[in-house]
Amino acid sequence: xxxxxxxxxxxxxxxxxxxxxxxxxxxxxxxxxxxxxxxxxxxxxxxxxxxxxxxxxxxxxxxxxxxxxxxxxxxxxxxxxxxxxxxxxxxxxxxxxxxxxxxxxxxxxxxxxxxxxxxxxxxxxxxxxxxxxxxxxxxxxxxxxxxxxxxxxxxxxxxxxxxxxxxxxxxxxxxxxxxxxxxxxxxxxxxxxxxxxxxxxxxxxxxxxxxxxxxxxxxxxxxxxxxxxxxxxxxxxxxxxxxxxxxxxxxxxxxxxxxxxxxxxxxxxxxxxxxxxxxxxxxxxxxxxxxxxxxxxxxxxxxx
Length: 304
Fold this sequence. Notes:
Elements: E1 8-19, E2 23-34, E3 38-42, H1 49-56, E4 64-69, E5 72-73, H2 78-82, E6 85-88, H3 100-110, H4 115-128, H5 144-157, E7 162-166, H6 174-189, E8 193-198, H7 201-207, E9 210-215, E10 218-223, H8 225-230, E11 236-241, E12 253-256, E13 259-264, H9 267-279, E14 285-288, H10 291-299
Parallel strand pairs: 3-8, 3-9, 6-7, 7-8
Antiparallel strand pairs: 1-2, 1-4, 4-5, 9-10, 11-13, 11-14, 12-13
Helix pairs in contact: 3-4, 3-5, 4-5, 5-6
């Protein structure tokens, strides 16, 4: 993370949203997001991540609470907030005969850049998404993943201080996803604040400086990946077939079909269990606990 600026870009206090029929999508969320960091909202579908982003980007009024972006109130100063943000919504798709170049270049002009700067920003962002060879291809003839990358390129080109991306890599292949992660990390290093939502653990782990786990509209925990994993007492996991193990020996486990994930405190315990399985001729694998293990433990639920 950019060490020179520990100022806060986004401050949320008591942000709540209740929809009709008394559905509570958010329940008093408090968050501080620093300038120059990639901050991820992690949680299952329906956790309230998109609702929170829509409030931050002034599309939705909170039922209670307040949020400020770069010192401006999302409730009282929405126009000033919009000057500081650019967003890729979850369900947005590039369409019609616009090309990636059209999206990136004209978005920059709309934000008040002169033509030379807009051209440079558009070129840089389209190249960052590995789309330069298709910059003049109409989006209607592209795949879903390519359309998504065209929108991300336009958002990055905007040069806004705060970039918001709702499930940005859904529908992208592994190379496309890593490319987006790389582009976001580079923008954060330049001092941009990036907030994104995901329900994909590897994405949260790879791209975030810090992350917040949200479940059922509530903030479960905030921290780095390492800090969040530390909240789980077990440090190692061993995956074994269910019928090969004496369950009474192990206090902590998760059942996944006909397999068990056994959680253990030390690497010695994990290695000993793997040896025991190998002596029986049974395949077993040990690994450190993952962010997903921590999520399931802390949020008390499985992810899709």
